[in-house]
Predict the 3D structure of the following.
Amino acid sequence: MSLYTLSRDDCFGLVHPMVDVHVLGINALEQLLSECGFKSVTADASACAAFGDPADPANTGSIRQWIAANKITVLGFSYRLDPVDGAAVFAELLALLKRLRLLAPQGGPIRAIYFAGLPRACDIVSAKHPEVTAVFRGDETAAETLARFGISSSLLPSSIAGVSYDEDRLAFGRDIVRRADYFKVMPTPKREYQAFGTGNDTLVARVRYHLERGLSPLMRAHVGPYSPDRTEAVRTFLEWTRTLAETGFLDVLSIGTSQLSQSRFGEDWGDSPDGGGVPLNTREEFALVWQTARPLLVRCYAGTRNLAALARMYEETINIAWHALSLWWFCRIDGRGPNTVYDNLGEHLDTLKYIASSGKPFEPNVPHHFAFRGADDVTYVVSAVLAARLAKHMGVRHLVLQNMLNTPKYTWGVQDLAKSRAMLTLVRELQDQRFSVFLQPRGGLDYFSPDIEKAKAQLAAVTALMDDIEPHSPASPPIIHVVSYSEASHLADPAVVNESIQITRHALEEYRKLRRRGLIDDMSQDRDVLQRTNALISEARTVLQTIETTVPEPYSVDGLYRIFSEGYLPVPYLWECKEEFRKATLWQTRMIQGGVRIVDKDGIPVSAGERMQRLARN
């Protein structure tokens, strides 16, 4: 493979098979190239169908005509499904291009060709096709993407200055990993307060203890080994729990239960297939986790049915540190449970009543589920605020505000800061003597690279991003959900979890040192972030005000269902229940300057005010 430097007369053709709906990356690339002044054309449905089966002679004419009609000189082919199938289809396409003599060495128009796919597919393509200019594994930053296209960072327009912020943080992360000083980080010393590690210990007490003594944020990590042998899986999990408790880096053990644990707890599972995670199935097993985890705080996933009963069981067995619910999600709409969305909301509100009576905090696992399905950034913020207002309405006293950064992973850091600050501003307006908010940021679910060293650098980089949300507050964030660096490669065992915590804590400390010395930009005063934040707050207020004035009893089961079904929370990539929530799927979104916006059929952004007016008319 050899680098090809784009020229201003190049036209980039972006194609993918019809069977592959993972188009957000293509949309982001199209916008990025446009902002850099380069032309690109994304294939329409008929062209994608042809490119998806290049071996069929019936598609030869369509492929040749599309390339000629659009004057394509650089071709990008994306296939994010099965890696073997992707490499095979690409090989057929490359063979066709050669037969048609469309490559530049043959006198044809195609000067460069790129492949984007899963890592295994990229390995196959790189090994078999040296004429390919470069491959993209999906973990590249915007700056890395442009560099691979031969676009110098000096050519970047000021409108995409956010790219340099991401690259600077990644360079910081690489330096953290290269120096490896994070291995010197030791467990946070704790002069145990009276209830420490007992049944009377609480998240609120832990946070207060750390803040009063200037200690690092509480470190939460998700752990859940899987084995086809249920007994072996539970045994391994208890061993891992004991190790994590003894080594002392972790503060909060988040039990990653299996799908059957969540959907059929206490039943005879027989030969039923199970997903990943630890398959706990008895009260006694949960109680044993609690005993083994001393003095860690412990929490667990909610179930997908009988939620209130499970919440009570968690209270009685693991003294759950805080509860988490996803409201519209983890039911038929995403294939995770048997409930309809309406019934799911009913169970969730009943469970919230119990959570409020327990006095325990509540974590809404809500906004990132909308983002997973193509929602815009305003919807991300609005859904979080709706969940927070619901919690307070139901009598919950403490809210753990989870904020999944890098979602989608093409999001620029400056937009993540804006989303975070907008969400915090609106949710903190609810704070009073009876309602408090604890920010808990985390890295994105699909942000991390399968390349372990790069993933470690990304972990340090996203830690810096977390600290830039409120860069002059040593108390923020009070809790960090540490996503282990092996997320994209393999399950994190205790050694990986502990090292990930060491990287996180060291990166946080080093980044704050650089800020105190004036060696990094003060993101609290960044004009772009301030403008984006103010715009998001304004747009979110418009949507929230419209909801609360047009939807009867919005914080009831009927109200929450109607908010979704009437299209106030757009999800253009929804897979299940599409007909039931047709109005929510009609809106289109695209990446624009590192953020996700709602757009019309011509790709022009639609304001929240205009969208609310359309909803009112319909």
Q: What stands out?
A: The mean pLDDT is 92. The first strand starts at residue 11 and ends at 15.
